[in-house]
Specification:
The chain is mainly alpha-helical. Helix content is 74%, strand content 4%. It has a two-stranded antiparallel ribbon. The protein has a two-stranded antiparallel ribbon with strand order 3-4.
Length: 653
C-alpha cells in the first residue's frame, strides 16, 4: 500500500510529462487526477490504520541507495503516525487540486505539462515525508524546490512569473545551505543519517561529560553548543522552505503561478516542509533549549509581521498568501515551546481551510475574467453563492470561529505559548493574540470587499460573472467539510489527554515540559482572548467596509507613512535589493566588463588576435604592386644572402 501511495504520483508525472502530447490533454488530466484520488483514499486508510491501530514506527526498505565503506544508506519508507498525518494532508489536498485544475486550466494549451508538474510536486513531497534518513529527506526537500520553481514559473512567457520563480529558488538556496550544513554536522557527530540511530544517540550525547566535539566558525563547541549550532542550521533550512521572517520574501511573489499551484504550495507541500522537518527531528531540537527559544522568536515575529502586511494588501491571492506566512509562524511558536503535536495539528487543520480559501479565490478570479484586485470586485455574493459560502467557511476556520477547525488548533497554540517556559514564550503569546485580531480583520476585509457592497467591476465583466463548474465546486465542498469538522473530530487524538496513544513515539514529548497537560489549566481570560480578538477584528472590518467604507481611505491618507510601510511589506524587497542584489549585480558587471573583458580577453584571445592583425596590416603594406619595389626587395635579399655567405665562409676558416 505504501509503495502505491509513494509511486503512483511518479507514474502520473512520467506518463503525462513524457507522453502528454501523444495521449492528449484530457487523458493527462484524468490519468493524473485518477491516480491522485486513489492515493488520497489509500492515505486515509493508512492514517486510520497507523494512528488508531496498534504498533510503533516501522521502516520498509525499498533498496540500497548508497554504500561507501561503513556508511550505508537505504531508500526506505518510514511508517509512523507523523508520516500518516502528512500523507493525508499532502495527498488529500493534491487530489482535490488536481480535480479542481481540470476546470480552472480548461483553456490553457499546456495542460499535460501542468498536470505532470503537479504530480511531480506531490511525489517530491511524499519522498520528504516518508523519508527514514536525512539524505532521503534532503532529496525530497530539493525536489519540492525544483517543482515549485517549475510551477511558479509555469507561464514562463510572463517576465513577472520568471522573476518570481527565480526568487523562490534563490531564497530557498540560502536556507538550504544551512540545512545541508546541519546534516553534515549531525553526520560528523554521530556518523549516521538514520533517524532512529540519531535519536537513540543524541540524548546520551547531550548528557555526557562536556568536551570539545566540534570546531565551527572558529568556535570550539562542546556537546550542548554543537547541538545548538546544528539545530539552528537546520532551522535555517526550515525558515527558507516555510517562509519565516527574513527568508519570507519569496512566498507572496509565488502568486504568479496558477491559483491551484498556490493552494498546493500553501496548504500541503512546500511551506509545510519546514514545520514537518522540525517536528520529525523534535528529539534533537528538544535537547537545545536555546534553539527552541530562537524558533519561538522567529515564529512569533513572523505571525505578527505577516498579519500586519495582510491588513492593506489589495490582491486577493496576496492577502491569503500573507495569511499562510502568519499561520506558519503560529506553527513554529508551538514547536518552539515544545508543543510539537499542537504544531502538527495546526498544520493538519490549516491544510483544509487554506486550500479552501485559495481554491475559492481561484473560483472568484475565474468568475471575474482573471481580475485579482479586490478594489475592482464587490457585489459578487448573489452571482457566485457556492464560492461565497465556501469562502465564508474558510474565513470562519482561519479566524478561529468556535468549533471550526482553526478554533481548536490555533487556540491550542496560543495557550501553549502562554504556558511555555522559554524566554520568548510570553512574547509569542502576545504576538499571536494580536495577530489573531489582525487575521480576523484582513480575512473579513477580503470577504466584504469581494462579495458585499456595490459592484466595482465594469459592466462588461459583471455581465459574464458566473459560478464555477462542478469540477471546481465539488473540491470546495469537500474542503469545507474539513474546515468545519477536522478540528472537532481530531482534536482529541492529536492533543487530548490520550495523545501519546495516537502518536506512539512519532513525536518527542518532553517529560520536563508537557505542554499538552498544562494548556488544560490556563486561566479563562487566556482561553477567551483569541475569541475576543476574532470578534473585534470582524466588527472593525464590518465598520470599515460595510458600515462606513470611506474610513479606510481617510485613515490611509492621515497615516500615509505607516500605510506605505505596510503596503510595501516593511520594504524588505527594497532593503534586500540595496544590500544584496545591486552589489551582486555591480560585482558581476565589474568582473564581466573589466575582469573578463578588459583583462582576460584583452590580454588573451583578443590581445593576441589584435597583435596578429597589426603584423598582417604591416605585411599587407609591403604588397604595393610596383615592379621596381619588388626588384629593389630582391636586390636587398641577394645582397643579404651574399653577405651572410661571406661571413659564413670566413667563420669556417
Amino acid at each position: 500500500m505504501y509503495q502505491a501511495i509513494l509511486f503512483l504520483p511518479l507514474i502520473g508525472f512520467l506518463v503525462a510529462g513524457l507522453s502528454g502530447r501523444a495521449i492528449g490533454a484530457k487523458a493527462s488530466e484524468y490519468l493524473t487526477s485518477g491516480l491522485m484520488i486513489v492515493v488520497a483514499l489509500l492515505s486515509w486508510v493508512a492514517f486510520v490504520t497507523v494512528g488508531f491501530g496498534e504498533g510503533h514506527a516501522t521502516s520498509q526498505v525499498l533498496f540500497r541507495w548508497m554504500n561507501s565503506g561503513d556508511f550505508n544508506v537505504d531508500w526506505s519508507i518510514r511508517v509512523d503516525t507523523l508520516t500518516a498525518v502528512m500523507l493525508v494532508v499532502v495527498n488529500t489536498v493534491s487530489a482535490l487540486v488536481h480535480v479542481y485544475s481540470i476546470g480552472y486550466m480548461h483553456h490553457d494549451p499546456h495542460r499535460p505539462r501542468f498536470f505532470a508538474y503537479l504530480s511531480l510536486f506531490t511525489f517530491a513531497m511524499l519522498m520528504l515525508v516518508t523519508s527514514d534518513n536525512l539524505l532521503q529527506m534532503f532529496f525530497g526537500w530539493e525536489g519540492v524546490g525544483l517543482a515549485s520553481y517549475l510551477l511558479i514559473g509555469f507561464w514562463f512567457k510572463k517576465p513577472s512569473a520568471n522573476a518570481a520563480a527565480m526568487k523562490a529558488f534563490v531564497v530557498n538556496r540560502v536556507g538550504d545551505f544551512g540545512f545541508i550544513l546541519g546534516i553534515f554536522g549531525l553526520f560528523y557527530l554521530f556518523q549516521t543519517t538514520d533517524y532512529d540511530t540519531l535519536f537513540a544517540q543524541a540524548k546520551a550525547f547531550s548528557e555526557a561529560e562536556p568536551k570539545v566535539v566540534l570546531d565551527f566558525l572558529g568556535y570550539q563547541l562542546t556537546q550542548q553548543g554543537a547541538l545548538t549550532a546544528i539545530c539552528l542550521l537546520l532551522f535555517m533550512g526550515a525558515m527558507g522552505k516555510s517562509a519565516q521572517f527574513l527568508l519570507h520574501t519569496w512566498l507572496p511573489d509565488a502568486m504568479e503561478g496558477p491559483t491551484p499551484v498556490s493552494a498546493l504550495i500553501h496548504a500541503a507541500t512546500m511551506v509545510t516542509a519546514g514545520v514537518f522537518m522540525v517536528a520529525r527531528l523534535s528529539p534533537i531540537f528538544d535537547l537545545s533549549h536555546t534553539a527552541l527559544t530562537v524558533v519561538t522568536l522567529f515564529g512569533a515575529t513572523t505571525a505578527f509581521f505577516a498579519a500586519t502586511v495582510g491588513l492593506v494588501q489589495n490582491d486577493i491571492k496576496r492577502v491569503i498568501a500573507y495569511s499562510t506566512c502568519s499561520q506558519l509562524g503560529y506553527m513554529f511558536v508551538a514547536l518552539g515551546v515544545g508543543g510539537y503535536s499542537i504544531a502538527v495539528f495546526h498544520l493538519f487543520t490549516h491544510a483544509f481551510f487554506k486550500a479552501l480559501l485559495f481554491l475559492g479565490a481561484g473560483s472568484v478570479i475565474h468568475a471575474v475574467s482573471n481580475e485579482q484586485d479586490m478594489r475592482k470586485m464587490g457585489g459578487l455574493r448573489k452571482h457566485i453563492p457556492i464560492t461565497y459560502w465556501s469562502m465564508v467557511i474558510g474565513t470562519l476556520a482561519l479566524t478561529g470561529f468556535p468549533l471550526t477547525a482553526g478554533y481548536f488548533s490555533k487556540d491550542g497554540i496560543i495557550e501553549a505559548a502562554f504556558v511555555g517556559h522559554n524566554a520568548f514564550a510570553q512574547y509569542a503569546f502576545w504576538m499571536t493574540v494580536v495577530a489573531a485580531g489582525m487575521t480576523s480583520f484582513y480575512s473579513w476585509r477580503l470577504a466584504f470587499m469581494t462579495f458585499h457592497g456595490k459592484p466595482r467591476a465594469s459592466v462588461d465583466v459583471m455581465k459574464h460573472v458566473h459560478e464555477s463548474p462542478l469540477v471546481m465546486t465539488v473540491p470546495l465542498f469537500v474542503l469545507s467539510v474539513g474546515a468545519l469538522f477536522a478540528g472537532a473530530v481530531f482534536a482529541g487524538p492529536f492533543m487530548g489527554h490520550h495523545y501519546e496513544e495516537f502518536w506512539k513515539g512519532a513525536l518527542y514529548i518532553s517529560e520536563e515540559n508537557e505542554i499538552l497537560h498544562a494548556i488544560h489549566e490556563v486561566p479563562f481570560w487566556v482561553k477567551a482572548s483569541p475569541f475576543v480578538m476574532m470578534v473585534a477584528g470582524l466588527a472593525l472590518a464590518w465598520l470599515f467596509y460595510i458600515k462606513s467604507p470611506d474610513i479606510p481611505g481617510r485613515l490611509a491618507e492621515r497615516h500615509q507613512g505607516l500605510y506605505q510601510f505596510l503596503l510595501n511589506k516593511w520594504y524588505f524587497d527594497e532593503l534586500y535589493d540595496a544590500i544584496f542584489v545591486r552589489p551582486a549585480m555591480w560585482i558581476g558587471r565589474q568582473l564581466w566588463k573589466r575582469g573578463d573583458g578588459t583583462v582576460i580577453d584583452g590580454l588573451g584571445p583578443n590581445g593576441v588576435a589584435a597583435r596578429v592583425q597589426d603584423v598582417t596590416s604591416w605585411v599587407v603594406r609591403l604588397q604595393t604592386g610596383y615592379l621596381y619595389h619588388y626588384a629593389f626587395a630582391m636586390l636587398i635579399g641577394v645582397a643579404a644572402l651574399i653577405t651572410w655567405s661571406m661571413f659564413s665562409v670566413g667563420g669556417a676558416h
